[in-house]
Write a structure and sequence with these properties.
With about 120 residues, this protein is mainly alpha-helical. The protein has one domain (about 5-115). It is about 55% helix and about 5% strand.
Amino acid sequence: MKNKQKLPTEAQIQKFKMLDELIDSIYHEMKEFSKKKPDEPLNKFKVKNINRIIEPIKEILKDEPTSEFLDFLDDETLPSNSDAILIIGQFKASMKQFYSKYYLYESGTGHRWSTKENPIF
């Protein structure tokens, strides 16, 4: 089963849940912008705020194989709306994989997170 050292902590899971909701909100908003003006560049405020959400996500996912493919938005070149959707979508896919890997079924208990403090073996 999973190496206990590689499991996320309870604190990481709590942060993950909060960030998951925030990134969903950003994703839906950016998707609407992208539909209307896909090639329009984001402003620095939006890039900064999106990066404030994805930076801690990348920290939680740092030991996952997908981590090397997760990039931040560049506040110098100001990516387009469609570029931002691509980046955010990669984060969402990586988060989905993390969820599937650590939110497991335990006989007698049901589904729950497997963490360092409370592993499922």
